[in-house]
């Protein structure tokens, strides 16, 4: 074993004990996560025992590939163990109260990851459990994805402050998280949505307040070309999120002018990258030509979910050293 692998690294703590929303983290929390994620990415074996003996419960009301696999593989890679709890049916709180679920789980495990429809379900878990709760996507936000995405953008450009990201499509959970976390990191975020599909005003206001402190700008548009102009990254997401499948047909018509095409990418900066949280629907929110192009970084985003979530779990569930 190398000296590095024998070294006991003192790990600082985040300013919060749960990750429920992008609104919870400060810029220095984000930098701490990025720094640790970078170390983990370059030397994963050094952290093979960071969460030895720890148990994680993963509650999912909605489907998942990336989030489920990265948390489970991440936990195993840190020496711990993850348990998947399928809550597609019954949903959380239906068989027994969320309070009782929290008060049982805290007796057996060291952390909870939860993907729910209602955002209040993750906050209720956190209010009732003495162990850390991590939001793995709710109808309101997807903080783990946004953290991984900005980590990826930082890797590509060697900096974050001063960059501009254009989010094209639905003013949804991903849009909320990218605006708020971007603003905290000094990244300007342009959002283009159809009329009536704008992000929620409380997230816009919050992002604008953060942006004022970091010198970034948050702007809403209804014209995708205007939003994409000069952007360093063009980001899109599905037009019908999980739970909105019933409206997919009508949404496909409303969102058609918001498809990310090579023509739209031409409005961005010449060195711009394309981003998507995935799952993607080629031919709907993005053309195959764009998502499968050399400037698409979607699989790097997916990979980095693993490294940033390992960092997050160590910071929230660890004993202060690795
Ligand atoms: N991006 C993301 O969260 O993917 P999954 O829905 O597959 O977890
Ligand atoms: N907005 C999408 C994100 C999937 C990762 C959804 O909620 O389905």
Brief summary of the model shown:
With about 325 residues, the protein is of the alpha/beta class. The protein has helices at about 5, 25-40, 65-75, 100-110, 120-130, 145-155, 175-185, 200-215, 225-230, 250-255, 260-265, 290, 300-315, and strands spanning about 55-60, 80-85, 110-115, 135, 165-170, 190, 220, 235, 275. Norvaline (NVA) binds near residues 137, 142, 174 and 237.
Features:
alpha/beta, four-stranded parallel β-sheet, Rossmann fold, disordered N terminus, five-stranded parallel β-sheet, binds norvaline, globular, binds phosphoric acid mono(formamide)ester, 322 residues, 13 helices
Describe the overall structure.
The protein has a five-stranded parallel beta sheet with strand order 7-6-5-8-9. It is built from 13 helices and nine strands. The radius of gyration is 19 Å and the shape is globular. The protein starts with a helix and ends in a 5-residue tail after the last helix. The model is unreliable at 1-7 (pLDDT under 50). With 322 residues, the protein is of the alpha/beta class. Helix 3 (66-77) packs across helix 13 (298-317) and helix 6 (143-157) packs across helix 13. The chain binds phosphoric acid mono(formamide)ester and norvaline (NVA).
Shape from CA axes? globular
Distance between termini? 15 Å
Oligomer: single chain
Ligand roster: phosphoric acid mono(formamide)ester, norvaline
Query: What is Rg?
Result: 19 Å
Fold blueprint:
Layout: H1 3-6, H2 27-42, E1 55-60, H3 66-77, E2 81-86, H4 98-108, E3 111-115, H5 119-128, E4 133-135, H6 143-157, E5 164-168, H7 173-184, E6 188-192, H8 201-214, E7 218-221, H9 224-228, E8 233-236, H10 248-255, H11 262-267, E9 273-276, H12 288-291, H13 298-317
Parallel strand pairs: 1-2, 1-3, 3-4, 5-6, 5-8, 6-7, 8-9
The structure holds phosphoric acid mono(formamide)ester (CP) and norvaline.
């Amino acid at each position: 074993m190398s000296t590095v692998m024998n070294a006991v690294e003192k790990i600082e703590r985040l300013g919060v004990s749960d990750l429920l929303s992008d609104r919870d983290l400060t810029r220095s929390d984000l930098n701490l996560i990025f720094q640790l994620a970078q170390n983990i990415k370059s030397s994963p074996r050094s952290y093979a025992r960071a969460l030895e003996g720890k148990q994680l419960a993963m509650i999912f009301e909605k489907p998942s590939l990336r989030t489920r696999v990265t948390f489970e593989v991440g936990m195993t890679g840190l020496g711990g163990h993850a348990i998947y709890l399928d809550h597609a049916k019954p949903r959380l709180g239906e068989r027994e109260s969320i309070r009782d679920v929290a008060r049982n789980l805290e007796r057996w495990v060291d952390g909870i990851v939860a993907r729910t429809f209602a955002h209040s379900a993750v906050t209720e878990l956190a209010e009732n459990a003495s162990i850390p709760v991590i939001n793995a996507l709710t109808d309101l936000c997807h903080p783990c994805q946004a953290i991984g995405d900005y980590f990826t953008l930082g890797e590509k450009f060697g900096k974050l402050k001063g960059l501009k990201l254009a989010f094209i499509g639905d003013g949804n959970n991903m849009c909320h998280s990218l605006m708020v976390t971007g603003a905290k990191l000094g990244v300007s975020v342009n959002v283009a949505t159809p009329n009536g599909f704008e992000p929620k005003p409380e997230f816009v206001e919050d992002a604008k307040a953060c942006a004022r402190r970091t010198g970034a700008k948050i702007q809403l548009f209804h014209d995708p070309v205007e939003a994409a102009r000069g952007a360093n990254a063009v980001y899109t997401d599905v037009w019908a999120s999980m739970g909105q499948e019933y409206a997919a047909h009508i949404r496909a018509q409303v969102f058609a002018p918001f498809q990310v095409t090579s023509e739209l990418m031409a409005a961005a900066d010449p060195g711009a990258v394309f981003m998507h949280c995935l799952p993607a629907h080629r031919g709907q929110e993005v053309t195959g030509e764009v998502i499968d192009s050399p400037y698409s970084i979607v699989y790097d985003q997916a990979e980095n979910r693993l490294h940033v979530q390992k960092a997050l779990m160590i910071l929230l569930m660890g004993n202060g050293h690795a």
